[in-house]
Amino acid sequence: MADDARSVILARIRSALGSSPDAPPVPRDYHPADPSRRGDLDLFVDRLEDYKATVIQTTAAALEADLAAALAGLTPLIVPPSLPFAVPESTVDNGTFSPTELDAFAGVVTCCAAAVAETGTIALDGSPDQGRRAVTLVPDRHFCVVRADQVVQSVPDLLARLTPTRPLTLISGPSATSDIELNRVEGVHGPRTLVVLLVR
User: Fold this and answer.
1) Is 56 within 8 Å of 196 (Cβ atoms)?
2) Secondary-structure breakdown of the chain: helix, strand, coil percentages, each rounded to the nearest 5
3) Cα–Cα distance between 80 and 124 in angstroms, integer?
4) What is the DSSP string of 133-145?
5) For labelling, which of 18, 83, 91, 182 has a CA lying 20 to 30 Å from the CA of 1?
């Protein structure tokens, strides 16, 4: 009887809808999407710090030294397969570590695909210098290197830089959530600590 009622209801809905209308075009005039538009780096830093991320401003020449200082005493570390800089005493992820094994690592060091100044958001797309999603979500600390030329101004600018078929992860500060009484809890669904090395 329930199946019959369901069939009757769905038939009535189909009849009322008639032939499927074409979906209307989505307006895209909210902001120009210009992948070459540079983001405001000071605004980007302000947003990250507002999210309780730590920002280390550095240069290409000083990156390895500043990263080593930030990682001092922190072991073991895991890194994606193809970082363009050295991370001493780290393990390269070969894709076989289970979530339990990844949880034993104190931190992960990655690069990023792009970032947004207006929202302080960092995008990862699973490229060899960023690694698979589990590597960036399970360890307790994430050290992410962001080059100044990767920071765009707005979310539409970011989307223009990304490939939608890649496994995208958008990070806006350390993992955090709040219950109904607004008690903040960190590290629920990702790293408790986010350290961004901004290479100017």
Assistant:
1) yes
2) 25, 25, 50
3) 12
4) HHHHHSSSEEEEE
5) 18
The enclosing H or E element of 110 equals strand 107-110
What are the chain's domains? 39-177+184-199 (3.40.50.10420)
Per-residue pLDDT 10s for the chain (200 aa) are 556 888 889 888 888 887 777 778 888 776 666 767 788 999 999 999 999 999 999 999 999 999 999 999 999 999 999 999 999 899 999 999 999 999 999 999 999 999 999 999 999 999 999 999 999 999 999 999 999 999 999 998 999 899 999 999 999 988 888 778 888 777 777 899 999 999 99
- Dihedral, CA of residue 58, residue 69, residue 127 and residue 39, to nearest 10: -20
The 8-class DSSP code of residue 38 comes to B
3-state secondary structure 57-105: EECCCCHHHHHHHHCCCCCCEEECCCCCCCCCCEEECCCCCCHHHHHCC
Q: What is the spatial distance between Cα 127 and Cα 155, in angstroms, rounded to a whole number?
A: 20
Contact between 151 and 117 (Cβ < 8 Å) = yes
pTM, to two decimals:
0.82
Please name which of 177, 110, 116 lies closest in space to residue 139, comparing C-alpha atoms: 110
CA atoms of 150 and 155, how far apart (whole Å): 13
